[in-house]
Structure formats: C-alpha cells, structure tokens
Design a protein that fits this description.
Elements (H helix, E strand, L loop, with lengths): L2 H11 L3 E4 L5 H13 L3 E5 L2 H7 L9 E3 L7 H11 L7 H10 L1 H10 L5 E4 L5 H11 L10 E7 L10 E5 L9 H19 L4 E5 L10 H16 L4 E6 L1 H5 L1 H7 L11 E3 L3 H14 L3 E8 L5 E3 L6 H16 L1
Helix pairs in contact: 1-13, 2-13, 4-5, 5-6, 6-7, 8-9
Length: 330
C-alpha cells in the first residue's frame, strides 16, 4: 500500500469533517467527489448552491453539505461570534459581515472555531496569506507553540534515502527568513508532524551550504545556533547540523563529512535555512524526481488549516484533505 493510501485508511477509521471554501474551482469539486466516494472525510462546501451544482455537473457530490453564507441560518450567529473574537482589534459588525460574505475562508474557519467542522483546506486559487490569515485571527496558535510553520510531505519514488523515500521538508511554505530560535521550533514541530503522519522516528537535519564548519558565513552561524537551541530544548529528538544535503541523507557522504553524527546519512526531516531554499528544494524534487508533494501542511495552529499550491492537482487536494483529517484526529 502506498504511503498516501495508508493516510487515507487512517482518515476513514475516524472520519472528520473538512471544509472546502474554494467551490469556484472545478478541481475542488472533482476532489470532493473522490473524497466522498472513498469515504475519507465528510465535506462541507461553502458557496451559492446553484453555482456549486452548475460547476459540478457530471460529478456526484450529493453527499457533501453545501452552506450558502447568504442564506444559511448559521450566518448571523457566526458573524456575532467573529465580532466577539476580534473585538479587541476593533472589528465592527459591518466589517465582520463583509468578511464572512466575501471571503469564504473566514466562514470556513468560523465553522471550525464553533465546532461545526474539524479542519479547512484551501489555497487552490488563493494565496497562502489569504488562506492562513483568517486561521491565525480566528483559530489561533496551538498552546505552547512558538510559531506557525508549514511543511511539505514528500514521497519520492524508488528512493533509498529518508524513510523509504518519505520526507518532511520545512519550512517550505510560510516563514520567510526564520531566526535561529524559529528554526529550532520549526525542527521540533516538524519532528512531531513526522511522528504523527509517518509513524516512524524523526531524524532531523538542519541544512546549510556548510557541513560541520566547512564554510564560514553569518547564514551558517544562524543554523549552528539553531542546532544548539534545538538540542537543548528538544532533547527527545535526533537533531543535528549544520549539514549539507548530501551529508544529511547519503550514508557514504556522511561518513566522510560528518563522522559520529547520529543524523547524518539518515535524515528524513529536512529543515531548510530559509523559505527560498525550502520552496526551491521541494519543487526541484517534485518536478525532477517526480515526487508526490503534499502541502503546504501547516503546523502550530490549534486546529488544522492547510494550504494548497495553486498548481495542485485533484489528487493533491484529496491527499491534503486526508492529511488534514488525520491531523484533526489528534
């Protein structure tokens, strides 16, 4: 059984309700049909019912719940609740109403906040900022979490590295230029996510263009400091660096570049020094190695709200919904 099929089977065993607010995108409706047919999750679609039914002609989405913010009996209560949540920021009733009726991501997050749903998947035709802003304003960060970050779950075919070709790449979707403290926190969150989704031991490499002092630069210093913080704050995980990519995943290279490391040559969680490196890295592997790339999957929000790449396929959406459902189980 493939890795993503294993995730789907886990989702089926304790079915959760996931909101898909981007009903104007045909890929979302095609994914909805697949999700419902496979029994992966219950689905709530946000939008005008006649428009959704028109856009979904030829698809069977009859098992989905469709909520039209303009006619739903829930809308007024959700608007009032949003005003209460954001009152310290000065949000007025009229502003809240406009948000709820014009930006369905806000409506989706309010459904999660009020217990009507377990998670949100969006981003097929909206930016990461548009997807995550309402989540951070409404659902907020998980207690004890320093920051929200994002990762890609990478499934590389015919690969001897990582966990039989399974990796987490972080942060590849959200935090632009993390500090040393933030890098350490991203490493810990990513290790948690690997344990949850993969079920094996996370082995975390803090990546750089340098391995164990082979280069000198402030960018290297940032990673070295992050490794020290991570080892002190999260001793339960195997974390090491700074490591070049080949030293992190190739045993033979690790023997010469980082002898004695308990991570080098074995890493399955790769922490990139900044968003440029992480985003470029995942797309290189996705396109050149024909890897499956699921994400950006967020970590650190009090309930799962996950982003999609705007270049996502229908199967990508199905996979991210399954991952979101498994996150919601925990």
């Amino acid at each position: 059984m493939s890795f993503i099929n294993t995730i789907k089977e886990r989702a089926k065993k304790n079915k959760k309700t996931i909101v898909l607010p981007e009903t104007m995108d045909k890929r979302v409706l095609e994914a909805t049909e697949k999700i419902l047919n496979e029994g992966i999750a219950n689905i709530i679609l946000i939008g005008k019912k006649d428009e959704i039914l028109e856009n979904s002609k030829g698809l069977d989405i009859s098992q989905a719940t469709i909520i039209d913010p303009f006619t739903s009996s829930m809308t007024e209560d959700l608007i009032q609740e949003l005003v209460e949540i954001r009152k310290n920021k000065g949000l007025t009733y009229d502003e809240a109403r406009k948000l709820m009726l014009s930006d369905y991501a806000y409506f989706a997050c309010m459904l999660v906040k009020t217990g009507h749903a377990d998670g949100v998947v969006s981003g097929a035709c909206h930016s990461t900022a548009n997807t995550l802003r309402p989540a951070l304003q409404i659902i907020k960060t998980k207690p004890g979490t320093m920051l929200v970050s994002a990762f890609f779950l990478m499934i590389v075919p015919n690969c001897q590295y990582g966990d039989n070709g399974v990796f987490i790449f972080a942060d590849s979707g959200l935090v632009q230029n993390p500090s040393s403290e933030e890098l350490a926190a991203i490493a810990a969150s990513s290790a948690d996510s690997f344990e949850l989704l993969v079920g094996d031991e996370p082995i975390v490499a803090m990546l750089s263009h340098s391995t164990k002092g082979s280069a000198s630069h402030p960018d290297v210093d940032k990673v070295v400091k992050a490794v020290k913080i991570a080892k002190e704050n999260y001793p339960q995980y195997k974390i090491d660096g700074e490591l070049q990519l080949d030293a992190a995943i190739v045993p033979k290279v690790a023997e010469s570049k980082a002898p004695g490391s308990n991570v080098a040559g074995r890493a399955n969680v790769l922490i990139f020094p900044d968003l440029d490196a992480g985003n470029i890295g995942y797309k290189l592997v996705q396109r050149l190695a024909k890897a499956e790339a699921y994400g950006p999957v967020t970590q650190g929000i009090a309930a799962p709200v996950n982003d999609l790449s705007r270049g996502c396929s229908v199967d990508d959406i199905v996979g991210v919904v399954a991952i979101t459902a498994v996150q919601a189980q925990n």
